User: Which sequence fits this backbone?
């Protein structure tokens, strides 16, 4: 919620998760911010986060940052084709497409009851994935519109198209940077516990 002053007495507007903000300074428990449209106001400091995650496919590592500050690094497991971007849904017949997608994503759900211990669900397919999928005939116009609408509303996109879905950072990883997943990023459970404490819905995840 954006407020006119450093209190909850004069709300200006409700802000969705992942709303980009320009930080103008903090005092006590409130921070003054500017939205991309130029409107200024105050938000509770506890509602701000500068944590983001970088997944390095070449090095098979996951890095956690707080703004520019490096916080932690973990070994990560990937799919069998770690070097290419994801283009479509994989299968037992097309295991080559069990790839980890590249781009900027966000945590859209925290699943504490995953079949792989715990999972941070990412909002793949993204806008760029939908554009490429439509151009290549992988998805229909209706599926494209549904993906774009979900991102405009900052909610989970359709996961059942031929682009694939349910790309997660989950547990049950080996901790040895191996390749066994179906496109997800797997961490050792003790490492995922640490990342879990840093992450929240809306945390940016850069994969490249």
Assistant:
């Amino acid at each position: 919620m954006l407020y006119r002053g450093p209190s909850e007495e004069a709300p200006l507007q409700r802000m969705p998760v992942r709303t980009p903000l320009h930080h103008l300074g903090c005092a006590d428990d409130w921070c003054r911010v500017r939205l991309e449209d130029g409107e200024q106001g105050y938000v509770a400091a506890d509602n701000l986060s500068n944590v983001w995650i970088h997944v390095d496919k070449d090095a098979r590592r996951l890095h956690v940052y707080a703004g520019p500050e490096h916080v932690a690094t973990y070994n990560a497991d990937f799919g069998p084709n770690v070097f290419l971007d994801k283009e479509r849904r994989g299968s037992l017949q097309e295991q080559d497409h069990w790839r980890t997608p590249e781009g900027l994503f966000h945590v859209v759900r925290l699943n504490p009851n995953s079949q792989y211990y715990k999972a941070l669900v990412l909002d793949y397919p993204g806008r760029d994935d939908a554009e490429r999928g439509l151009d290549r005939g992988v998805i229909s116009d209706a599926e494209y519109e549904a993906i774009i609408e979900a991102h405009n509303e900052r909610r989970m996109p359709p996961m059942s198209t031929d682009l694939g879905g349910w790309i997660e950072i989950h547990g049950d990883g080996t901790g040895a940077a191996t390749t066994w997943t179906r496109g997800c990023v797997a961490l050792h459970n003790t490492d995922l516990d640490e990342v879990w404490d840093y992450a929240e819905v809306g945390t940016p995840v850069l994969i490249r």
The first strand starts at residue 2 and ends at 3. Residues 104 and 206 are 5 Å apart (CA to CA). The mean pLDDT is 94.
